[in-house]
Amino acid sequence: MAGIVALSLTALCASAVEPIKVGVSGPFTGGSSPMGIAMRDGIRLAAQEINEAGGILGRPLQLIERDDEARPERGAQVAQEMINRERVIAGLGIVNTGVALASQRFYQQAHIPMITSVATGSIITKQFLPPQYPDNYIFRVSAPDSIQAAMIVEEAVERRHLRRLAIFHDSTNYGQLGREDLERALERHGIKPVAIERFNIRDVDMTPQLTRARAAGTEGILTYGLGPELAHLANGMVRIGWKVPLVGSWALAMSNFIDNAGPNAEGTRMPQTFIQEGETPRRKRFIERYRKAFGVERIPVAPAAAQGYDSMLLLATAIRQARSTEGHRLREALESLKEHVEGIVMVYDRPFSKTDHESIDSTRIPVMGEVRNRQVVFAYDEDRKRDAFHK
């Protein structure tokens, strides 16, 4: 689908107008690829719409896309290539927290804004804060893990009245930091996990960890991992004849969890910034355009697609406001956006400030999703109504 943006550039490029280069990086192969591909395609849709409307400042957008393979070292290489060789004016994307932590410092050093579309590690926008750094060039449109962890624990403790909880997390930065956020959220409820179990990327047998958790009297499992391993976790529970509620981070909505776990994924719950239901005309149009453009019925990871789309809209708005592609002016514009941006996740009204680069900093926007019949749907009707109201 690389041609979706290129095709819309034809008319504008015919006059030899220099394009505005925007870097887009994420895992387009491997276990994290459902998130990366959905995010990239959401960005492509937004860029196509902008170019069809005449571009920005009379110039077309050109997306420079690179696969970071979900590897921190590759992400760092990609960031440097984007900045030094491709001369991008901003970066969008990044799915994996470890990749973000390894690569975003190059955007910071170059004074080039980076809008994180997907990665959720709570520390991501806090690496470059004053007074050590006069200006922070890292922004985010996804729900931080501190927000997600609070929602996960609320679901387990307040709504389901579970007290004996186990945490299962992978060994990546994402899993380790997410586990810490879960422990802090549980502590606020006066609860300590009865078991904390770790697994590695590409692990397929969770029997030892599940056996220990069951022996500890676990009533529910809280997860921080990615789709393939989470599927092995859900399938492993069935193999040992043990069923307890599974509640975890938004990665439980990944297509490679739902497809690989099959019926064993049913009922799992997770925070979501966007669920693939056409509750508003704008949302319905986005879903229809995504399906048509990429030939799929189900968006691989709907929040990643919506967040990618919105990150492109926010950057475009900043460029128009700044009337410039200079990094410091784009940062200043993002920190003081005057125009309301009608996104898919929400309507953005001054989403960032000088001291707050998180567009989502409360549990007001995310909703709780649930896997039903191999689709992610609203877990609660009140969330559906609230979600439609905010959009």
Q: How would you explain this protein's 3D organization?
A:
- About 55% of the residues are buried.
- The chain is globular.
- The protein contains 13 helices and 14 strands.
- The N terminus is likely disordered.
- The two termini are about 30 Å apart.
- Helix 8 links the parallel strand 8 and strand 9.
- The protein has about 400 residues and is an alpha/beta fold.
- The strands form four sheets. It has a five-stranded parallel sheet, with helices on both faces. Strands 7-6-8-9 form a four-stranded parallel sheet, sandwiched between helices. A three-stranded antiparallel sheet has the order 10-13-14.
The low-confidence parts are 1-15
Spatial gap, N to C terminus: 28 Å
Multimerization state: single chain
Using only C-alpha atoms, the radius of gyration works out to 20 Å
